[in-house]
Amino acid sequence: MNKEKVIVGMSGGVDSSVCAYLLKEEGYDVIGVTMDFWHDDEPEDIYRNLEDAADAKAVCEVLGIPHIAMNFTKGFRKNVEEYFRSEYVKGRTPNPCIRCNETVKWGALLEKAEELGVEYIATGHYARIDRMENGRLSVKNSVTAKKDQTYVLYRLSQEQLWHTLMPIGEYEKDEIRKIAEQMKLPVAAKKDSQDICFIDDGDYAGYLKNYENGSAFSEGDFVLLDGTVVGRHKGLAHYTVGQRKGLGIALGKHVFVHHLDVKGNRVVLCDNEDLFTDTLYAGNIRCMAEERFDENKTYMGKIRYSHTAEPCRVSYEAEDRIKVVFENKVRAVTPGQSVVLYTGDYVAGGGEIE
Question: Given this chain, do its domains 213-270 and 275-353 carry the same CATH topology?
Fold first, then answer.
């Protein structure tokens, strides 16, 4: 009997490396693939150009599995980087990881898997996939709340989920490290990446300036909610909803960014209590555990990756737009981020906050 083949997206980190090991132990025919997002053309030796690719190759050698580097640069730049830049110009705060997962890490990688005749792809995300009573697949919370990554996976389609394996979701992070050490994987002690992969040192403004020199970096007014002008800002790209630090303005009290007025090129400031609301609207929605959100049901909603989910109700404003009302007010609802809705431990779906 032929073993089922699986492509493991290997970033050179400990999670994806242990993912490959676990699947091999389960009897899968594993192929390690590192996705190259940085070269316009195929490099002669990607392993010299990318430290992470070299690490992934070294892990594959230890595991005795093949390793391939595939170039996804064009798709990444179009679907992730261009999206990221365009959102900031609109005064929104994007989440490029969500867009990358949907269009590149799953979308493009699954296409490659099909070309190679491979049934599954797998990643080192801290999440699980389970079948609901209604027959649909959904992403389920990881066993470890500290590393749960379901929030960034809510846009995966049923087709993508049917061809996905996520073994890491059954483990705590410490357990993954121990497995890597026991197997003497060369990345066992490697630190987790924290920042957005295509921006050095988290300098969003510096990155954006290389591409966008227009309205996003034009100086304008700081104003209060009543319209009172209280200072000058450096350009809308430097600010996001809820921000307090780095404003460069002294008013004798803490003030926060309430919203960005793109049309007027103004940063609107407020007191902390003015950042709380119980209602938001979201578009570009995606349902996962259910074909359609239940307007009579209470969900648990998260408005950002680090947010603790709060009870909420959903109603449709249009076929692709929802209104979400929370039982308790939530702080700093940010356009461009996603609201992700949960039913129990499962992702029900979500949408992009307007």
Answer: no
Q: Which are the catalytic amino acids? A: 100, 197
In 181-305, DSSP assigns E strands to 220-224, 229-233, 256-261, 266-270, 276-287, 298-302
Report the alpha-carbon distance of residue 59 to residue 12 in Å, rounded. 8
142-158 pLDDT tens trace: 998 788 999 999 999 99
Distance CA 48, CA 69 (A): 12
The CA distance from 216 to 194, in Å, is 25
Q: What is the structure's pLDDT at 204?
A: 80
Q: Does 83 score more than 90 pLDDT? A: yes
What is the CATH code for 213-270? Answer: 2.30.30.280
End-to-end CA distance of the chain: 51
* Statement: 275-353 belongs to CATH 2.40.30.10: yes
Contact 29, 4 (CB under 8 A): yes
Q: What is the mean pLDDT of residues 157-184?
A: 96
Stretch (H or E) spanning 326: strand 321-331
Residue 257 in tokens: 């960014």
Residue with token string 């470890």: 144
320 neighbors 285 (Cβ within 8 angstroms): yes
What is the radius of gyration, based on Cα positions, of the chain? 22
Is-contact 242 257, C-beta < 8 A?
yes
Compute the CA torsion angle 101, 105, 106, 112 (nearest 10 deg).
160
pTM of structure: 0.93
